[in-house]
Amino acid sequence: MAAENSSQGDKAGLAGTALAAMGVVFGDIGTSPLYTVKEVFGGHHPLAVTADNVLGILSLVFWALTITVSLKYVLFIMRADNKGEGGIMALTALALRTANASPRVLWLMSALGIFGAALFYGDAVITPAMSVLSAVEGLHVATPLLKPYVLPITVCILVLLFVFQRHGTAAVGALFGPVMMFWFVTLGMLGLWNVIQYPLVLAAINPWYAGAFVIEHQGLAFLALGSVVLAITGGEALYADMGHFGRRAIKWAWFAFVFPLLYLNYLGQGALILKDPKAVENPFFLMAPSEVLLIPLVVLATVATVIASQAVISGAFSLTSQAMQLGYCPRIQVNFT
């Protein structure tokens, strides 16, 4: 009886931690559907909306998520923790401690670690602005009269986010976790509704479409990959935020909930633009089955992008703390809330 109660308690604790992780860890990658497909087919190097192109892009997105996030981060790299901490600095510390190498090789490892940290900081700088702006632009889809207010609203939201940040990861996760769960359910439902209208897109899981697209287009496919990679931004946050929630909670939340619903939304966007090519203007918001749902969807997307910003911000704090311990960053005061 005691063992059974202990097992149930462990499952409840894991579920609670996984829910909190959704509010911090998966926010960034969970809001990528707002702009990824739109950028591929309506960005600076737009692709023609054909069945082969759409299936090729959707296939690239699926295998990018599978190989880069599922295999690389969740199943492989997250095993390399430094006393429970993750991130590029933790990986660098492990490499320096275990490598029996010359000073030159150790210096090279340190330089690579610092370079990787710089890339993560770059992501932490640009992601909040890109994500929140993409969500608030939904107001322009609802009514063009609100277009002049998109940028001021975005700036105000970002300022409030950083003001709230001082309350710490626990408070933020408890508040944002249930909201993010509802966001992913909404992503899945929107995707499912559109996939039912055009079930052909389910074939995109076949890697043949990705390979055929790259072989056929070559140069244009290389440019398109620059937009496809937007689908996996935030994948590194899973590793960087591992110290906050642990590997098990992040792994189960990703495979059992986040990944299936996330990709279902990408399939739904593909189905929508195949049915109506004009939807490339903003495929995410045009997925809404009714105009009545558009404003609530904009509000939910805005809240979700605020949470997305939290994912990389928390990761940047963890990275800075680790960099100080390794002597790569000046000593600054850290408040452990």
The proportion of residues forming helix, as a percent range, comes to over 70%
Number of strands: 0
Any idea what the shape is? globular
Cα(first) to Cα(last) distance is 36 Å
The major beta sheet can be summarized as: none
Q: Structural class, judged by helices and strands?
A: mainly alpha
The number of domains is 1
Task: Describe this structure in a few short sentences.
The protein has 337 residues and is mostly helical. It has helices at 2-24, 27-30, 36-42, 51-76, 88-98, 103-136, 138-142, 150-164, 169-197, 207-217, 219-228, 235-240, 242-245, 247-275, 283-286, 294-326.
SSE layout and pairings?
Layout: H1 2-24, H2 27-30, H3 36-42, H4 51-76, H5 88-98, H6 103-136, H7 138-142, H8 150-164, H9 169-197, H10 207-217, H11 219-228, H12 235-240, H13 242-245, H14 247-275, H15 283-286, H16 294-326
Give a description of the structure.
- This protein has 337 residues and is an all-alpha fold.
- It has one domain.
- The chain is built from 16 helices and no strands.
- The chain has helices spanning 2-24, 27-30, 36-42, 51-76, 88-98, 103-136, 138-142, 150-164, 169-197, 207-217, 219-228, 235-240, 242-245, 247-275, 283-286, 294-326.
- Helices cover 74% and strands 0% of the residues.
- Helix 6 (103-136) runs antiparallel to helix 16 (294-326).
Keywords:
globular, 337 residues, 74% helix, 0% strand
